[in-house]
Amino acid sequence: MYKLLIRPLFFLFDPEKIHHFTFSFIRFISKIPFIPSLFRKLYFVQDKRLERQLFGLKFKNPVGLAAGFDKDAKLYNELSNFGFGFIEIGTLTPKPQDGNPKKRLFRLKSDNAIINRMGFNNGGVDEAVKRLKKNNGVIIGGNIGKNKVTPNEEAVEDYKKCFHALFDHVDYFVVNVSSPNTPNLRELQDKEPLTRLLQTLKEENNKKFKQKPILLKIAPDLTDSQLLDIIVIVRDTNIEGVIATNTTVSREGLTSENKNEIGGLSGKPLTNRSTEVIRFLAEKSNKAFPIIGVGGIHSVKDALEKLEAGADLIQLYTGFIYEGPKLIKDINKAILEK
After folding, report:
1. 71 in a labelled binding site
2. How far is 187 from 218, CA to CA, in rounded Å?
3. Annotated active-site residue in 178, 179, 266, 285
4. pLDDT digits (tens, 9 = 90+) for 62-116
5. For the sheet containing 113-116, what is the strand order?
6. Backbone angles phi, psi at 98, to 5 degrees
7. Per its UniProt entry, what is the enzyme's top EC class, as one word (predicted)?
């Protein structure tokens, strides 16, 4: 039904506008008493064999929603009814910011992809915290970043502010230094500044009575040498894991008319590269840390390949938009059948 009726209708409209409309619609119908249970019946696969224990957390299943979809933690309870085992909110910054000028979100239909240059548009971490207080048991990842106006030399302070504000309201943290849409942000992936940032957050974490897992989200555009640096950094800073990968700046093989838009590319063109990065990290580190795999998961096959490459959990974003919530159910059923 989704791919035959709903998606063709949605794709007639501006992607950012239809995103906001969809949020409003899901929120509205989820207030009808039987709708949430209907969604769960349609899409949620309940089975103990799907549960995953990772960095001290129990996930109901290994399929999550990636950051960027519910930036401001406005719909995580409702979205969890579609079968996700966990939901990552953000990227959140200390202060609210509008992000980059519109138009900034583009569908590449013939490539099953999206280009975005949103620029960390969000209402600020404090507003998200208010909504996170209404969590009904959903495992939440808090994806954190810096404000656009904050120079890189002061970026650590932005990440610390988000870390402390979110600490009591999320289950794990994701340090985002890999978005291509905030000027100079990816420079923080260099070994020295990244090590300093992660060490600082670990120090703040160690001051807490009970620590929260910290993960690093990396770009798919890193070289093998840089990926080896990531393995060393994870070991030296003792963070809990890596999310591989964010969007790419590559445009190789695209055919859609919007292919040259500036921004991060997500979706099917990223499938192979993100899996390569997962496999590289898993093999070269001898599976020394957990990996959450994300990037171009549009089918059961894509999901299983990432898990076989070394991912412990996976996340959807663009695949969820193109394929609909049935993809979550299909992946979980396929995992059970293996």
Report:
1. yes
2. 12
3. 179
4. 999 999 999 999 999 999 999 999 999 999 999 999 999 999 999 999 999 999 9
5. 105-108, 113-116, 264-267
6. -75, -20
7. oxidoreductase
Instruction: Encode pLDDT of 122-162 as tens digits.
Output: 999 999 999 999 999 999 999 999 999 999 999 999 999 99
Any known ligand binding at 275? no
**In contact, 326 and 81? CB cutoff 8 Å:** no
**How far is residue 209's CA from residue 154's CA, in Å, rounded to a whole number?**
27
Residue 179 falls in the annotated catalytic set: yes
pLDDT value at position 303? 98
pTM of structure: 0.97
pLDDT at residue 291 in the model: 98
Tell me the CATH number for domain 2-337: 3.20.20.70
